[in-house]
Amino acid sequence: MCGIVGYNGKDKNTLHVLIDGLKALEYRGYDSAGIAYKNNGINIIKSVGKIDELEKKVDYNIKSNIGIGHTRWATHGSVNITNCHPHNVGDITIVHNGIIENFNSLKEELENKKYKFNTKTDTEVACALIDLFYNETKDIKKALVKFMDKVEGSYALGVIVKGDDNIYSVRKDSPLIVAKGDNGNFIASDTIAVSKYADSVMYLKENIIAEISSDNITLFDRDLNIVENDFKEIDKSINNTDKCGYDYYMLKEIHEQPKVFRDTVSSYLENGIDSLIDKMPDFTKYNRIDIVACGSAYHTGLVGKNLIEEFADIPVNVEVASEYRYKKNFYDDKTLVIVVSQSGETADTLAALRKAKGDNIDTLAIVNVEGSTMAREANILLKIKAGREIAVATTKAYSAQVAMLSLIALNLASAKGNIDKNEIKDILKDIKELPVKLENTILNPEYEKIANAIYENESVFFIGRGIDYALSMEGSLKLKEISYINSQAYAAGELKHGTISLIDEGTPVIGILTEDNLVLKTISNMEEVKSRGAVTIGITNNNIDSNFDYKIEIPKVHKLLQPLLTVIPLQLISYEVAKLRKCNIDQPKNLAKSVTVE
Question: For 251, which of 41, 341, 438, 581 is 20 to 30 Å away at the CA?
Fold first, then answer.
């Protein structure tokens, strides 16, 4: 969500660096973009739409050593060039990620001091506030300290000042990195934006001011004392953004799931179940688990709840982070709070983590980015190994999160003696064979046929019971995310309690049937909708004799692993439907990859 890049260098190549950086940040989701650079003053170029539209306005013959750039995902003010970043007020030009929550009261104060505003954005207010403090102090670092004291909300700022040859940055509750290269230094929302040019990187800590010159990066605390930095070498493999022949990143990432599963679980099972116990924390000291997440990560939590409760006999509460952080929570010192986030920066989930830590509750983060804020702040880190995921709609990161929660359930079940050695042996055999079964499930030719049957509908229903209901929720979200079809997921038994009134002739209903003790009941629910004209699509690992219009059979494995196979058809049906509807599959409208605002 929104992207920042900044460069202070010696090679007068700023325009190339900024545009390259913004293109690398496109995966985050955005609706407009802009850059500001120094060349006989501060020059600003903005454009609505894709980076290509901005690049058409850029003259690469212009030489500059200092600049900042931004991709905007609108929060305050409509999508237009006026509201697009960068913003300039007086001597200050900024780019900003996050939300200034008290911007209305600040705006009123600033208007009383004769500031005038051209936009509806909180960013222009932030820019004016910094300008006010800069005029008062004549020192940009002191101005930024006063800014931090005054504003409420989240921010990551890139700041350039008239007559000053440095870039300045500060952050709170929104990610920002600083990086070093041979020809200059950088700021960015994500390492990928500058990895082409930089060699080492550091995640900027909160309320630390970074002063970026062409030769050095100096960090200051709120008292303007210099603080130590901790730069680490950049893994250049993240530069690989090749689609490898696939039409879309999403399809490529779906095909990467067998490898992601293998990479995520292999280090925990080097010596079978013993190494799983050794390499994970002692979960047996907890008598309750809260899983907190957003979007698809929340759906992984629902899958994890089913598995942990069934195999480990521990109650699991799963909540949307934006609700959890504001409610009364009934946890104690025997509660573990697990936060799940691909980026490790999701704003609501991070706030929930901090709330639990503030109450002295143990926290565990399941994230894909080792240096992220959640990875650093949680008491325990379990890193998934999904690699870089570019498509906004998650596939391989979702599967890796489910795999990690499955390992936690297996760890607990084994530690508590809930499963015997023979069952463990069967599970380990299934784990070894799963990558091949995933590959075969991905290659099933039925997905395109089903997509052709349903893509023109504007309403689709997903139903299931038990863990299949949790998977239905992810299938429904995936379809609506990338195809814009109004899809809904329901517990199959709830259909008759109102929802069945929405079934018309030709309405697609996708039923998931992998719960052995519930399959016959879900079949009955599918018959109920079929008798009312629905087009029925069954996804099952059972050899059932059904009257479905379409059926996808997937391999049957141990229940701890079954969700990893079941989700594949849901992902690929959504992909094929979106492709037929000619949607922007990798970058759906209005969505962002990393949601770092509340």
Answer: 341
Q: Are 379 and 349 in contact (CB under 8 A)?
A: no
Give the SS3 label for residue 361.
coil
Q: What residues contact residue 116 under an 8 Å CB cut-off, 6+ apart?
A: none
Rounded to whole angstroms, how far apart are CA atoms 344 and 369? Answer: 6
What is the per-residue DSSP string for 160-215? EETT---EEEEEESS--EEEEETTEEEEESSGGGTTTTEEEEEEPPTT-EEEE-SS
Distance between CA atoms of residues 188 and 204, nearest Å: 10
What are the angstrom distances between the C-alpha of 86 and each of 82, 99, 180, 218, 225? Answer: 10, 15, 23, 23, 29
Q: How far apart are CA 595 and CA 112, in angstroms?
A: 34
Closest C-alpha among 85, 48, 23, 30 to residue 584:
30
Q: Transcribe 202-262 into DSSP letters.
A: EEPPTT-EEEE-SS-EEEE-TT--EE----EE--GGGG----TT-SSHHHHHHHTHHHHHH
Convert the pLDDT of each residue in 479-520 to its tens digit.
Answer: 999 999 999 999 988 877 878 878 888 899 999 999 989 988
Q: Is the preceding omega at residue 86 within 30 degrees of 0, hence cis?
A: yes
Model pTM above 0.90: no
pLDDT score of 80: 82
Please state, in angstroms and rounded to a whole number, the distance separating the CA atoms of residues 329 and 288. 12
Give the angle subtended at the CA of 211 by the CAs of 208 and 214, to the nearest 5°: 150
* CB 160, CB 36: distance < 8 Å: yes
- Residue-wise pLDDT for 556-572, tens only, equals 999 999 999 999 999 99
pLDDT mean across residues, the chain: 92
- DSSP string for 108-132: HHHHHTT---SSS-HHHHHHHHHHH
Known catalytic residues are 2, 593
Contact 469, 492 (CB under 8 A): yes
Question: Residue 64: how many CB atoms within 10 A of its CB?
Answer: 20
The residues, ordered by sequence, that sit 6+ positions from 525 with a Cβ below 8 Å of its Cβ are 463, 492, 493, 495, 496, 511
Three-state DSSP string of 490-538: EEHHHHHHCHHHHCCCCCEEEEEECCCCCHHHHHHHHHHHHCCCCEEEE
First to last CA, the chain: 11
Q: How far apart are CA 439 and CA 306, in angstroms?
A: 25
Name the percent of the chain in helix, strand, coil, to the closest 5. 40, 25, 35
Instruction: Return d(Cα 589, Cα 586) in angstroms, integer.
Output: 10
What angle (nearest 5°) sits at the alpha carbon of residue 303, between those of residues 323 and 369? 70
Residue type for position 145:
V
Candidates 408, 381, 386; CA nearest to 397 is 386
Tokens for 216, please give them: 């050095």
Contact 488, 476 (CB under 8 A): yes
